[in-house]
Every structure is written in C-alpha cells, then in structure tokens.
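Just wondering, does anyone understand what follows?

——
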Amino acid sequence: MTAIVLSPAQRKDHRSEAHHLDPVVMVGGDGLTPAVEREIDHALNAHGLIKVRVFSDDRAARAAMLIELADKLGAAPIQHIGKLLVLWRPIPPKEKVEREDRQPGPRTVKVVSFSKSGNHRATVKKIKVFGNERVTAGGQVKRVKRRLVSPKKKATD
C-alpha cells in the first residue's frame, strides 16, 4: 500500500485532534517487528488517529520508521515530534450482521412514584420489562394485547 497524501490544512486538523491523545503503541529496542506493525494496524482500525512512541535516540531512524509505517499500512504520516509519531487512516466501516432470530430483550425501567403529601421523597423502583410489555403512566406493567383480526380475513388466510 502507499501512504495517504493529505493537504497541509488536513494535517493541521489531525495534529490538533491528536494533541490530547496518549501513545497507543510503543516501539522498543527491537524496532519494527511484524508484531508491532500488526498492533499498529489494529490500533489504526480501531481508532483511526494514533500516537506511537519510539524508544530510539536516532532521529533519522524514527523519521524513516514513520515513512515506512505509512507506506506499509496505507496511513498518512501526520507528525513526528520528538519520540512520538502520529499516524492517521480512515476507520473502515463495520459490517452489520442481520440476524432473523433476534428479539428485543428485557430492559430495566425506572418507575418514580411521588408522595401524595409532597413532604417525602419520591420512591424509585427498577422494573424489568420484556419485549411484549410496556409501562403505563401510572407505573403499571401491561402486556401487549393481540391485534384483532376480522373473521373474514382469518378465513381467507
């Protein structure tokens, strides 16, 4: 893959977004191993914009590492400041898996009932409501009634 080329304005925007980030991946004395590259690739897929800390004193080696990572991973080199490298790659869209057997699960609902005198605290109850139930305005749980179907429609089906 080749590195993504960004305009100076786009790089500036990404630099400002990366300012508050902490380094996600640390590159040790062994340098760029396949395991480190794989971790950086996973971090780019998850976050899009990441910082990488390189524990090396050679500035030229760090600059070469930034260019090499950008080329191998198809990312854009954003910034090289000190021992930090900033890389960006757009996050790939996640595939949504449609399942036929999914039903809405139970959910927890808070029911608040206020005191009649107004001098006491309101009581809060947590109720588990299933997919075929609803909570009324009075705080009661009611089940959904079957939809009425006409006798003529039943006969044609």
In short: The chain is about 30% helix and 25% strand. Strands lie at 23-27, 49-54, 76-81, 84-88, 107-113, 123-129, 133-135, 141-143.
